[in-house]
């Protein structure tokens, strides 16, 4: 790979399903660079490949063709064990449906990735306490998911995604199940994370969420349809410097 000072790079990225006349190219030849500290929003009509692209970038799916690089390391050709280890340590995931463990408290959900990554229970608990305070839920650590509102559950999920200080946070329709007030809470939290230097890639249908990003890409039929640096972007200079890498 050519020298690249960003976090994520995709080259010729494709993901196909089926064969012959039933072949569907969910992602079709995507080239994409994501830079450190950038909040990138991905929009497009349903079925255009947004979620599949996110899964490919995070190693949840493997490409049919092309390459994915994370912080200078190619990840699409790693073994399943190595890829799982990398996801656990370097990538945070947030999903529309939260995917919290219902039998665990909010604090225990946040602790889980740290424990799986080898941290001691004491260190995992300290990290969970810090993160729950960061997302405004310091007083909800002992609550089970069913005792929390949708917005609170999503903030717990975001705290969990940050447990191992990931290089990149990938969010798939994170406000899709939330009302307006909860959406604003999550939106502000993403803005705070970006301001603190966290790299984020957010798939969203919500134009309010997309409008807070540094950069917006649109997809159609599995391909990138548009790539726009938004006004006031904090990552514009670094991004332009890196495009020739």
Commentary on this structure:
Helix 3 packs across helix 4 and helix 4 (121-134) crosses helix 5 (150-161). It is built from eight helices and ten strands. The longest helix is centred in the C-terminal third of the chain and has 16 residues, at 180-195. The chain is an alpha/beta fold. A six-stranded mixed β-sheet has the order 6-7-8-3-9-10, with helices on both faces. Mean pLDDT is 90; it is low at 234-245. The protein is globular and about 50 Å long.
Question: Which key phrases capture this entry?
Answer:
245 residues, six-stranded mixed β-sheet, four-stranded antiparallel β-sheet, disordered C terminus
Number of extended strands: 10
From the spread of the alpha carbons, the general shape counts as globular
Order of helices and strands: EEEHEEHEHHHEHEHEEH
**Percentage of helical residues?**
25-40%
The structural class is alpha/beta
Distance between the termini: 9 Å
What is the residue-mean pLDDT, rounded to a whole number?
90
State the helix count: 8
* Poorly predicted residue ranges: 234-245
Report the biggest beta sheet as strand number plus sense, adding barrel if it closes: 6 strands, mixed
Strand order of the largest sheet: 6-7-8-3-9-10
Beta fraction: 25-35%
Radius of gyration: 18 Å
């Amino acid at each position: 790979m050519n020298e690249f000072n960003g976090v994520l790079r995709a080259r010729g990225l494709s993901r196909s399903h089926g064969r012959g006349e039933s072949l569907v190219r969910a992602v079709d030849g995507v080239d994409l660079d994501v830079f450190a500290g950038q909040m990138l929003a991905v929009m497009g009509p349903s079925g255009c490949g947004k979620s599949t692209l996110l899964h490919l970038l995070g190693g949840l799916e493997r490409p049919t063709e092309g390459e994915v690089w994370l912080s200078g390391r190619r990840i699409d050709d790693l073994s399943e064990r190595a890829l799982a280890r990398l996801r656990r340590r370097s990538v945070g995931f947030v999903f529309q449906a939260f995917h919290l463990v219902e039998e665990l408290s909010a604090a225990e959900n946040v602790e889980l990735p740290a424990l799986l990554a080898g941290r001691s229970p004491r260190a995992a608990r300290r990290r969970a306490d810090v993160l729950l305070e960061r997302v405004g839920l310091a007083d909800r650590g002992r609550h089970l998911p069913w005792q929390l509102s949708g917005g609170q559950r999503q903030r717990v999920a975001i705290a969990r995604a940050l447990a191992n200080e990931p290089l990149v946070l990938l969010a798939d329709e994170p406000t899709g199940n939330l009302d307006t007030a909860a959406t604003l809470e999550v939106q502000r939290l993403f803005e705070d994370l970006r301001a603190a230097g966290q790299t984020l890639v957010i798939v969203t249908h919500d134009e309010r969420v997309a409008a807070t990003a540094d950069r917006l890409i649109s997809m159609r039929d599995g391909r990138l349809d548009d790539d726009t640096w938004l006004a006031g972007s904090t990552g514009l200079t670094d991004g332009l410097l890196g495009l020739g890498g």
